[in-house]
Amino acid sequence: MKARRDVFQAIADPTRRAIIGLLAKETLTLNTVADNFNMSQPAISKHMRILTECGLVVIVKQGRERHCSASFSALQEVAQWAAQYRHFWSNRLDTLEQLLNE
Protein backbone atom coordinates (compact mmCIF):
# COMPACT_ATOMS: atom_id res chain seq x y z
CA MET A 1 0.00 0.00 0.00
CA LYS A 2 1.44 3.36 -1.05
CA ALA A 3 1.32 6.06 1.61
CA ARG A 4 -0.17 9.41 0.61
CA ARG A 5 2.28 12.29 0.64
CA ASP A 6 1.65 14.77 3.37
CA VAL A 7 1.12 18.42 2.42
CA PHE A 8 3.26 19.44 5.42
CA GLN A 9 6.13 17.36 4.04
CA ALA A 10 5.76 19.10 0.70
CA ILE A 11 5.85 22.65 2.04
CA ALA A 12 8.71 21.90 4.44
CA ASP A 13 11.23 22.23 1.61
CA PRO A 14 12.17 25.76 0.45
CA THR A 15 12.54 24.68 -3.18
CA ARG A 16 9.04 23.24 -3.21
CA ARG A 17 7.66 26.41 -1.61
CA ALA A 18 9.40 28.42 -4.33
CA ILE A 19 7.88 26.19 -7.02
CA ILE A 20 4.41 26.72 -5.52
CA GLY A 21 5.09 30.46 -5.48
CA LEU A 22 5.98 30.43 -9.18
CA LEU A 23 2.93 28.40 -10.10
CA ALA A 24 0.66 30.58 -7.97
CA LYS A 25 1.26 33.39 -10.45
CA GLU A 26 0.80 31.44 -13.68
CA THR A 27 0.75 28.03 -15.31
CA LEU A 28 4.23 27.07 -16.51
CA THR A 29 5.72 24.21 -18.46
CA LEU A 30 7.88 21.80 -16.52
CA ASN A 31 10.97 23.07 -18.36
CA THR A 32 10.13 26.68 -17.48
CA VAL A 33 9.82 25.72 -13.82
CA ALA A 34 13.20 23.97 -13.99
CA ASP A 35 14.80 27.03 -15.64
CA ASN A 36 14.11 29.02 -12.46
CA PHE A 37 16.35 26.80 -10.32
CA ASN A 38 20.02 25.96 -10.32
CA MET A 39 19.57 22.20 -10.07
CA SER A 40 19.31 19.18 -12.30
CA GLN A 41 16.16 18.19 -14.16
CA PRO A 42 15.89 14.94 -12.12
CA ALA A 43 16.01 16.97 -8.88
CA ILE A 44 13.21 19.25 -10.11
CA SER A 45 11.24 16.19 -11.22
CA LYS A 46 11.53 14.73 -7.73
CA HIS A 47 10.19 17.94 -6.19
CA MET A 48 7.35 18.04 -8.73
CA ARG A 49 6.46 14.41 -8.01
CA ILE A 50 6.14 15.17 -4.30
CA LEU A 51 4.03 18.27 -5.02
CA THR A 52 1.72 16.35 -7.33
CA GLU A 53 1.38 13.40 -4.97
CA CYS A 54 0.13 15.65 -2.18
CA GLY A 55 -2.16 17.58 -4.53
CA LEU A 56 -0.41 20.97 -4.54
CA VAL A 57 0.49 20.85 -8.22
CA VAL A 58 -1.47 19.55 -11.20
CA ILE A 59 0.39 18.59 -14.37
CA VAL A 60 -1.51 18.38 -17.65
CA LYS A 61 0.18 16.96 -20.73
CA GLN A 62 -0.51 19.00 -23.87
CA GLY A 63 1.25 17.57 -26.87
CA ARG A 64 4.91 17.18 -25.97
CA GLU A 65 4.79 19.64 -23.08
CA ARG A 66 3.63 19.24 -19.52
CA HIS A 67 1.90 22.30 -18.09
CA CYS A 68 2.03 22.75 -14.33
CA SER A 69 -0.39 24.73 -12.20
CA ALA A 70 -0.88 25.20 -8.49
CA SER A 71 -3.83 23.63 -6.71
CA PHE A 72 -4.42 25.29 -3.39
CA SER A 73 -7.18 23.07 -2.04
CA ALA A 74 -4.58 20.87 -0.33
CA LEU A 75 -3.36 23.92 1.61
CA GLN A 76 -6.72 24.01 3.42
CA GLU A 77 -5.31 21.36 5.76
CA VAL A 78 -2.38 23.65 6.60
CA ALA A 79 -4.68 26.64 7.06
CA GLN A 80 -6.89 24.71 9.49
CA TRP A 81 -3.88 23.53 11.47
CA ALA A 82 -2.42 27.04 11.67
CA ALA A 83 -5.80 28.57 12.58
CA GLN A 84 -5.95 26.71 15.88
CA TYR A 85 -2.62 28.21 16.93
CA ARG A 86 -3.51 31.65 15.63
CA HIS A 87 -6.65 31.55 17.81
CA PHE A 88 -4.66 30.30 20.82
CA TRP A 89 -2.00 33.02 20.56
CA SER A 90 -4.53 35.73 19.86
CA ASN A 91 -6.35 34.84 23.08
CA ARG A 92 -3.10 34.70 25.03
CA LEU A 93 -1.97 38.09 23.78
CA ASP A 94 -5.38 39.62 24.53
CA THR A 95 -5.14 38.29 28.08
CA LEU A 96 -1.61 39.68 28.44
CA GLU A 97 -2.76 43.07 27.16
CA GLN A 98 -5.57 43.13 29.73
CA LEU A 99 -3.16 42.26 32.53
CA LEU A 100 -0.73 44.97 31.45
CA ASN A 101 -3.51 47.54 31.28
CA GLU A 102 -4.64 46.83 34.87
TrEMBL record:
Xref: Gene3D superfamilies: Winged helix-like DNA-binding domain superfamily/Winged helix DNA-binding domain (1.10.10.10)
GO molecular function annotations of the record: DNA binding; DNA-binding transcription factor activity
Annotated SUPFAM superfamilies: Winged helix' DNA-binding domain
Domain HTH arsR-type: 1-90
Keyword set, alphabetical order: DNA-binding
Keyword DNA-binding included in the entry's annotation: yes
Signal peptide: none
SMART domains named in the record: HTH_ARSR
Protein name: DNA-binding transcriptional regulator, ArsR family
Biological source species: Chitinophaga arvensicola
